[in-house]
Amino acid sequence: MKKYRMILFLICLLPISASAAIQHRYSFIDDANDLVGNAPGTLVNGAVVSGGQVELFGGNDAEGAYVNLPAGTIAINTYPAITMELWSSSATNNPFTMTAAFGNTWGNGNGQDYIFIVTDQGTDIARAGIANTPDDTEPWGDEVGINGPAYFDGTEHHYVFTVTDTTAVFYIDGELQNTASLGETAISGLSNTFGYLGKGVYSVDGTWAGQINEFRLYDSALGELAVFFNGQVGPDQYQDTVLTSMSPPDGEMDVPYNPAVELTWTALDGVAVDHYEIFLATDPNLVDPNEAIMNGAGTPYDTTANLYYDAAGLDPTALYGWRVDTIESGTGTRYVGPAFTFTTAPPGPVFVAPLINHAAAFPGGTAG
Does this model's pTM top 0.90? Predict the structure, then answer.
């Protein structure tokens, strides 16, 4: 939920690099406007924007409330790769329907040449998939899909579906659900006829009941760290990150701290880096990327031009949070990174017993 109207203003001030290639963003501040591209959505059949999200009430047929997106303008089948990202919540175990979908509909009501995210479908699973359908009899037979757990607990969850020319990947709440090979299925085979939120391209299905906080489309496939970062920052603000990996992994335990913890990371190719700023603390507020984006980065623990940093003098058995911000050469633009945590190892054993004269420990030996 959007808590501050000023967020929109702050978003406009944040740097957005070409790496994420976000094309469309529906944040539902007051309406179904597109904050990035020129493809505003339309509220249909009683869909309501309230509290920074769109509320959809569902129905037993395709004429319930939904958001219509201008699929022809979006032209999703021209993308070299696709990321569909949404934050949504539902207290209803919706029967077969789609939470976000692009494609066409056969005359018999089945889906045709489509891509979708289903957050719950009445069978306790979520699913994301893509299909190039040669006929209208069983189009789902050619569907390349990935399943995950369904949530209809009234709590907001984060869904990301990425598709390249070879692979589909599905994340829920930042966790990888699975990957799937596309085989002969192709992005170019999708239809630009319909685009929906809260409704599927199977017109024989009903519409979805729940709330969508934000929906985004990218013409690139977000990597796992970018998905993690977006989930951490949330739907209320947007900024790209240029990091592609960090080590130690998030949540790592028993990390050696003596003489130092080596922090390492990698960045996207082609980024002109002046230096990196490392934030390291046992206070999570000091490394929170939300705080950095909204209120300024604060004072870094240290800076480096390298892709590694030896953090010395850390306490044993302590939980540390760390973040790496990238400062662009020439412009000084800051790209905030995600916050990871690790726990240092406990102190090593200390030997206090006197030394033993091993010569006296064996038969025939002497102590002299």
Answer: no
